[in-house]
Amino acid sequence: MAMNKIQFQAGLSLHEFLHQYGTEAQCEAALFAARWPHGWRCLRCDAERYSCTHNGRKLWECLGCGYQCSSIVGTVFENTKLPLRTWFLAIYLMTQSKNAVSA
Ligand SMILES: [Zn+2]
């Protein structure tokens, strides 16, 4: 049976995790980088030009069609009322624990 490299990679300590994803801005930046690794693109018209505003969460507005979206639109985090850092911490605890914390 082939060895899964992901399964045997070194874990991230809680201290390192909080250093990398401890703030809302860090979590949003990580989500943005995962969604748009080559820069923001409009979900409707695929334009690259945008303006940025804040409405509790960072919003990108397309300068081509006027469509507004945040980094959580179209993800599992869409419609959440909780901060992203809470979800990131929950995901960290679920994936790093070996003591059935998911139960
Ligand atoms: Zn657009």
Automatic annotation (TrEMBL):
Which InterPro entries does the record associate with it?
Transposase_Zn_ribbon
Transposase zinc-ribbon domain: residues covered: 22-68
Q: According to the lineage, what is the superkingdom?
A: Bacteria
Instruction: Extract the Pfam families matched here.
Output: Zn_ribbon_IS1595
Report what the protein is called.
Transposase
